[in-house]
Write a sequence for this structure.
């Protein structure tokens, strides 16, 4: 060790005897001069051992300060813990009884003008042999320590100064170059101990915050390890799943008795998240999410939607009943209006025609409502392997005449060799028809509409793009809601009942697909959806 040539018996005597202000620390006893390097190793070993004895940050800072003061034979010491910008975030001062209004200016002064600031800027340790002649030492008003010499050393970890350690003595020339070497060696170990304690404190604080957040969440949260043993859960999980007793470390199969939840839990994939609406044996309905986290295990979350499900069922039944009840009187009104339109002339004939058109619109609205009800009830029985490109080609052909009347160029681009999808041709055709109808409706004369069908990221994608006015960002999230309307003056005349896109969304989701819109004002809109390919097996 390079320090072997710098240490002498006098220094060892000073370190081990005069510096032993706290005999309970039990530092190694001094050895003969022939074994000086061994004494140094034993000293550092004992310091490292004591640094490693705790991960409490305040306790580590206290040990760093007390052990270095003791080892070097200093009178007092201060330690600062710094953030990435060099600001003091924790400190133990030699004058520990300073009030806050004095402590903060003191820290600012010593970090900007004093030895601590010099050590931070230069990233190296140094000695102030006499405070009365060294400009790096700032004498503070009311300082009763009588400091005449000092030594400062940076705590460097991962090439960053994370702290400053300053030791003082009431006599000048109290510290030698050997003390500086010893301080550098101790500081290296102290920096590691401080960083470990700081990381532990940070992780512990984050863990406690996470536990508090999870405990306060009304959704049920259950986390299991790689062996399906419960490692974390919140009160909502215990309540909603009827869990009892000590759960931590218990296998999920032994803790949960709900078959539907267990089936969903075991459906976890190795590489993706699973979402499903699960109905429990008592009739409660939950939107469940399950994800496998690499190196951790499985996270299960459950959101109770029972009340919403009941409301939705009641709403659907009400709409269905009202729609059916309205059909008969509307048919009667439409019939009489048609007779009147034939018999009347002039203005009265116009009135009768208006009644007929209004009846037609109401019929279309009722048909859409009934379509939504049928789709939401399930259309899986209608599914068959379907060529989406062929379907889109046929639907687009039906709109060519409409496009020509508005002088709109209708383009159809279909990628060859597309896989088939399991779908209802009637419902999927209805969805494409609604998108094309909207695109042509909102595209001005002379514009362009493009229908594209391709295969992207393992899914069949359909895009319908127009050169219309576009949709403001704030309105895009509402487009697929029932009865949603933009309400803009330039498109108000073309807007219908607001069910077309809701039907498209319901159809796509019934096919396990995803729908989205990309639009910018003045640049047109693109409505798109993707569907999983049919299982070839």
């Amino acid at each position: 060790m390079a320090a072997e040539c710098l240490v002498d018996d006098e220094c060892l005597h000073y370190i081990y005897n005069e510096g032993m202000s706290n005999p309970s620390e039990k530092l190694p006893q001094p050895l003969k001069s022939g074994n000086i390097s061994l004494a140094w190793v034993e000293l550092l070993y004992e310091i490292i051992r004591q640094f490693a004895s705790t991960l409490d940050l305040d306790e580590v800072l206290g040990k760093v300060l007390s052990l270095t003061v003791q080892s070097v034979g200093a009178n007092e010491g201060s330690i600062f813990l710094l953030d990435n910008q060099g600001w003091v975030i924790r400190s133990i001062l030699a004058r520990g009884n300073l009030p806050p209004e004095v402590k903060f200016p003191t820290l600012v002064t010593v970090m900007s003008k004093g030895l601590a600031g010099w050590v931070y800027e230069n990233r190296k340790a140094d000695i102030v042999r006499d405070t009365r002649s060294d400009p790096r030492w700032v004498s503070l008003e009311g300082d009763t320590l009588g400091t005449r010499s000092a030594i400062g050393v940076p705590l460097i970890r991962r090439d960053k100064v994370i702290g400053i350690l300053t030791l003082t003595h009431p006599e000048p020339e109290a510290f030698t170059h050997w003390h500086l070497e010893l301080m550098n060696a101790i500081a290296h170990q102290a920096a590691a101990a401080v960083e470990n304690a700081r990381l532990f404190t940070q992780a512990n604080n984050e863990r406690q915050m996470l536990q508090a957040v999870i405990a306060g969440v009304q959704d049920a949260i259950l986390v299991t390890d790689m062996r399906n043993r419960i490692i974390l859960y919140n009160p909502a999980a215990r309540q909603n799943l009827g869990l009892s007793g000590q759960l931590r470390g218990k296998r999920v199969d032994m803790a949960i008795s709900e078959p539907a939840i267990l089936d969903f839990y075991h459906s976890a994939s190795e590489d993706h998240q699973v979402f499903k609406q699960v109905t429990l044996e008592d009739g409660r309905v939950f939107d469940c999410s399950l994800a496998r986290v690499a190196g951790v295990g499985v996270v299960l979350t459950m959101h109770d939607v029972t009340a919403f499900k009941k409301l939705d069922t009641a709403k659907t039944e009400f709409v269905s009943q009202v729609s059916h009840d309205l059909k008969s009187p509307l048919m009667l009104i439409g019939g009489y209006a048609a007779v009147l339109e034939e018999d009347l002339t002039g203005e009265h004939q116009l009135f009768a025609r208006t009644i007929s058109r209004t009846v037609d619109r109401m019929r279309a609205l009722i048909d859409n409502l009934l379509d939504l009800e049928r789709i939401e009830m399930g259309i899986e029985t209608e599914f068959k392997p379907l060529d989406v490109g062929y379907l889109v080609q046929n639907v687009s052909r039906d709109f060519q005449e409409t496009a020509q009347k508005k002088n709109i160029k209708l383009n159809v681009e279909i990628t060859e060799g597309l896989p088939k999808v399991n779908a209802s041709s009637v419902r999927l055709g209805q969805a494409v028809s609604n998108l094309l109808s909207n695109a042509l409706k909102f595209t001005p004369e002379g514009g362009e509409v493009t229908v594209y069908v391709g295969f992207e990221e393992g899914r069949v994608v359909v895009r319908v793009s127009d050169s219309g006015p576009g949709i403001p960002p704030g309105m895009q999230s509402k487009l697929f809601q029932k009865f949603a309307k933009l309400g803009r003056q330039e498109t108000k005349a073309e807007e219908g009942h607001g069910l077309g896109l809701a039907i498209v969304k319901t159809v796509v989701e019934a096919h396990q697909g995803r729908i989205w819109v990309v639009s910018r004002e003045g640049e047109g809109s693109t409505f798109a959806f993707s569907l999983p390919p049919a299982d070839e097996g």
About this structure: The chain has four domains: 2-204, 217-304, 308-377, 380-531. The radius of gyration is 39 Å. The chain is about 45% helix and 20% strand.
